[in-house]
Amino acid sequence: MSDKLKMARQFIQALPHSMALGMELRDLGDGSAEITMPYDEKLIGDPKTGVIHGGAVSALMDTCCGAAVMSHPSNPAATATMDLRIEYLRAATPGQSITTRATCYHVTRSVAFVRATATDEDAENLVATATGTFTVEGHK
What we know:
Shape: globular
Structural class: alpha+beta
Strand order of the largest sheet: 1-2-6-7-8-5
Largest sheet: 6 strands, antiparallel
Number of helices: 3
Order of helices and strands: HHEEEEHEEEE
Strand content: 35-45%
């Protein structure tokens, strides 16, 4: 395991919301990240259907986007969400984990631009997409 991946996992495990939602960093590349959140009944937003609440999906996507920014080769020292637009395309299938993949595709002196997708086990049928901007601190 790379030092960067190990450090990112430790960082995500230090975030109380990430631990409460059961997030697990699966992959980290140069400007990309993948995080999975397991299905958990405590995250259900609609008891009749068993569908996970959109707020949990939003937190997953935001965290994954931030990890992608932090892993960018320009090595930002820190980041924070400026704007995150999420389009929910369908409900995630009850009982299935949700995985988000994010890519930081452009970084300026002060802003990083990110795209992300969220899927359940049907990876060809997106649950949500996101685009966002994040602050860049300590840009080299």
